[in-house]
Specification:
By secondary structure, this protein is an alpha/beta fold. It has helices at 45-53, 75-81, 98-105, 122-134, 150-162, 180-193, 206-212, 230-235, 237-244; strands at 5-16, 19-30, 34-38, 60-65, 68-69, 83-86, 168-172, 198-202, 215-220, 223-228. The protein has two domains: 1-82 and 166-246, 3-Layer(aba) Sandwich (Rossmann fold), CATH 3.40.50; 92-165, no CATH class. The strands form two sheets. A six-stranded mixed beta sheet has the order 6-7-8-3-9-10, with helices on both faces. α3 (98-105) crosses α4, α3 packs parallel to α5 and α5 packs parallel to α6. Bound molecules: adenosine-5'-triphosphate. One of its GO terms (molecular function) is ATP binding.
């Protein structure tokens, strides 16, 4: 039987000049789960995502993704293993169209021959249309990405990850700067895409967290402060003291 746990983090620690940004952390994310990580500034949330995607190397501990130990892999092998990461600022190609951005992100576009020899096959075209629909950009396929609204750019970047079909998708403050209706659409999008993948989201907007989280992990000073359903976490006195009460 397949394990319900997709990502198992154990005793994870990273020190920067003796300062532990993540300190002995244990975290387990299930398949098809939307996990939101919250906590005050400097709690170690971004560093945690950096560790999972290989941008930062762990000082100690383990990050198991299915049967693969990620701490031993370099960033692009972690992507190939099925982990996608979206940073806070969109990294789309502004002068290319939405369609071209999605085509370039299709996994074969980055094979041994590089994108130069990449052929846009019917299969790729079909997948681009499917993803564009998922991210509400079907009618913007030929628009230059630079002309999209801030929210649409964020969606495009999510689409550029989705087209690679990652089993784990990590998003750092995906709704920052979005309008209310864009936030609602993004919540619906995350609910839909987590039907067949897990999603880890760092977020400060508590209304949005309530909308999307299956479970919430609260970090404080690099350590796990609390974990559970949103309503449990919201009533936790330690969480109110260090974060929600502020
Ligand atoms: N490469 C680095 N070198 C030194 N210190 C670092 C490095 N990366 C992060 N830190 C420190 O680690 C701590 C945790 O930072 P991190 O960005 O992970 O916090 P965060 O929870 O994401 O905060 P925020 O909500 O402000 O984004 C901070 O004190 C930060 O200054």
């Amino acid at each position: 039987m397949t394990s319900p746990i997709l990502l198992a983090i154990e005793d994870l620690t990273v020190s920067f000049d003796g300062f532990k940004a993540v300190d002995g952390l244990n975290l387990y994310v299930e398949r098809n789960e939307v996990r939101v990580v919250i906590g005050p500034n400097g709690a170690g949330k971004t560093t945690l995502l950096d560790l999972i995607c290989g941008k930062t190397k762990a000082s100690a501990g383990s990050i198991k993704f299915k049967d693969t130990e990620l701490t031993k892999l370099v960033e692009h092998d972690i992507v190939k293993a099925g982990v996608g990461r979206k940073f806070q600022t969109p990294s789309i190609y502004e002068n290319l169209s939405v369609r071209e951005n999605l085509e370039l992100s299709y996994p074969k576009g980055r094979n041994v021959f590089g994108s130069l020899f990449f052929k846009v096959t019917d299969k790729v075209r079909a997948r681009v249309l499917e993803v564009a629909k998922d991210i509400f950009l079907s009618d913007r396929l030929d628009t230059s990405a630079g002309l999209l609204s801030h929210g649409q750019k964020q969606w495009l970047e999510i689409g550029m990850l989705l087209i690679q079909d990652p089993e784990l998708l990590m998003l750092d403050e995906p709704v920052a700067g979005m309008s209310v209706s864009e936030r609602e659409a993004t919540a619906e999008l995350l609910g839909r895409i987590s039907k067949n993948r897990s999603v880890i989201v760092i977020e400060h907007d508590m209304d949005f967290v309530k909308d999307i989280a299956h479970r919430v992990t609260v970090l404080h000073q690099g350590k796990l402060l609390a974990e559970g359903k949103m309503d449990e976490v919201q009533q936790n006195e330690k969480v109110i003291e260090v974060y929600l009460g502020h």
